[in-house]
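Kindly draft a sequence, keeping tokens residue-aligned:
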Amino acid sequence: MFDYLIVGAGFAGSVLAERLASQLHKKVLIIDKRNHIGGNAYDHYNKEGILVHKYGPHIFHTNSSEVFDYLSQFTEWRPYEHRVQASVDGQLVPIPINLNTINQLYGLNLTSFEVEDFFQSRAENISPLRTSEDVVVSRVGRELYEKFFRNYTRKQWGMDPSELDKSVTSRVPVRTNRDDRYFSDTYQAMPLRGYTAMFERMLDHPNIKIMLNTDYHEILDLIPFREMIYTGPVDEYFDFKWGKLPYRSLEFKHETLDESVHQPAPVVNFPNEHPFTRITEFKYLTGQQHPKTSIVYEYPKAEGDPYYPVPKPENAALYNKYKKLADDTPGVYFVGRLATYRYYNMDQVVAQALTLFKKLSATKEKEQLLEDRAPLHLKGTDSSSGGSKLKVKALKELASTLSTNGNGNGKQNGKH
């Protein structure tokens, strides 16, 4: 009997498997439909011996010391600050937009104070901010919006920024200094030996068993377990009862080139040309030395593996209907991007998983406390007197009033 069946071996599932096994000594079975662990962060050496990210670039960054310290148990780090350039008007310029971007694009020599005036002179007064278009136009004006954001967003999301929630472009900063880093987080680094090696160390515990190429439906009636942690699509779990939640997907075209360096930056965005959105060159990310180089093109598409929840009000409303079902499902914990229909960075998923573990740990402590404080006549083991049955019944009744699983209940169930 496993204490937990964990569906999905990405960040959410793997973190919880490791914590439950190492800290609470629980027996865990973690399964995944794919033939590997690590979820979308999975990396591997291609046939030329170059370390590549199968599902596109995954750049680790966080402001959370808790998340960074936790992952540091399973990997050494290679310091890495990510940089991106965009192909605009026949030039490669820094993105996010900064002082150098404006000076290079317009042939100017502005200072940080002057570039703020430049932005303000072009910005439009929009209130309230509702859409992704509103966010950008109100900050830098319509011309820069057209050059950098509109067509890129159309390719990425299959719709105009005026149709998308403001959260999509709110994530992208605009700077008045020369800082050309894509992120400004306190911790910016890459796992020294790659993500897969980190996941392997995380799941290397005698209480953790791994099954790959496995749909969880296939084992529900075959392998006993007490509770489930589900990290897959929440609509799929409930057999699409309210319809499918919309996602955007990606197609990746990998190439290895007979040259040591292909482009001047780790990632180059193409907002206004080509059907793909960007090209990533992996050796920048990994620091690997190799006479050849590997790149990946990203082609957004409507169908395929779910990558990005589409941020529109009607989709949020649809998810809330599924969330209510999840909250009312006993013994199943929904965690991660797909199970909570949120676009989370890797560190946010780790933080969410650690938070759920703390709740589970507190629940187990309460149950143990109840056991320890049970009256002496409930601690008896004389089954002939009915003591054991009374003890179990009383403890279950008490535990059910105190234990919660993050979905508003603490009952046991392994199926839906």
User: Anything to note?
Assistant: The domain at 1-37+203-246+310-416 is CATH 3.40.50.720 (Rossmann fold).
